[in-house]
Sequence to fold (92 residues):
Amino acid sequence: MAQNQPGIYENRVMELLGSLAEMLLKKEQPKEPFAEYPDLLYAEDVINITRWSSSHTYSVMKRPNFPLANGGEKPYCVFKRDFIRWLEREVP
Fold:
C-alpha cells in the first residue's frame, strides 16, 4: 500500500468525522429558558414561570440577594438573565 493513500481505518475515521460534522450542523440551537417572556420580568411573570404563589413570589423578590432590576422600588422587576442566574445559584 502506498503511503499517500489512506487505509481502511483512516477512511472510517474520516466517515465518522463527516457524519459528526453533519449532525452538528443540523442540530438546532438550544432554546433559551423562558424565551417567550420579555427581557424584563415583573412579579406576575415570575409567578407564571415558577408557579409560586403571589405571597411567596413577593417575599422571594424582597430578599437581599434577589437581583431586582429597579433597586427594590415598586413594581418589582428583574432582568431575565439575572433571574436565571439567581435560580441556578439558589435552587438545588
Notes: The CA atoms of residues 2 and 20 lie 28 Å apart. Residues 40-90 form one domain. Strands lie at 40-42, 77-79. The mean pLDDT is 82.
